[in-house]
Amino acid sequence: MDRKIWRKSYGSIPGLPCPRCKPGTLRSNSKLFYRKQPKYVTTGFSELALHDVSEGRFTCFLTCDYGFCGEVVAVSGDFRSHDEYVFNPDTEEHEVFEDKTLVPKSMVPAPPIIKWPEKLDSVPREHLFHSFELFWMNRGACAGRLRIFIEALLDQLGVVREGIKRNGKKGTLDLSERIDELDKLKPGHKAALDALRHVGNFGSHEGDADFEDLIVCYDILETTLVELIEDKRAKLDAEIAAIIDRKGKPRT
For 67-212, where are the E strands, in sequence order? Predict the structure, then answer.
């Protein structure tokens, strides 16, 4: 996961991964960028004599640069801009540069924030895709959808939903109890999943989530998915143990 490309706001939208193909990168085009300032904003700035300030809504289109794909992503959100005056000693005049900030509120279809194993089942995969969409629209809902994703992932991994609860009685296991059950089957991932659970709980109950916490959660999730579904760490540990058992001697 490339954390630096995922931000609350941009001066210009960077190359983002294509939601349709793996090799492609989404590119912006100034000819496909549109913005409009509401009349009440224009009136307010005029009354304050702020003629070099603007804000309102923008739309633009990002296009996949892979020739066999060419996917188009529609982006919309808020913009703010103001003019910067910089003195040019060569011309002894002030040059005007626009300082622009774009705050995306929607990307459709949403670029994938992380990669996932091919063996990820369709149900958790669908929840993951929805979280990518909600990341721009509603951070609380995004966190809540990641929590739902964890539940679906545990289903794929064979973790039961019914069992003995912490109070010793039979019943429906909550997410914390299911994570404990997973830890018995595949130890070492409890802390990572608990972090995602806490952010998801806060998002569901409070209707919001910290932007940076969501970025960290996606980073955690990308690594954890590889280890849980592809058993990459377990396979590597087995290879390490085999080399140690052979004391470095070649395989017979």
Answer: 72-88, 93-108, 162-164, 170-172
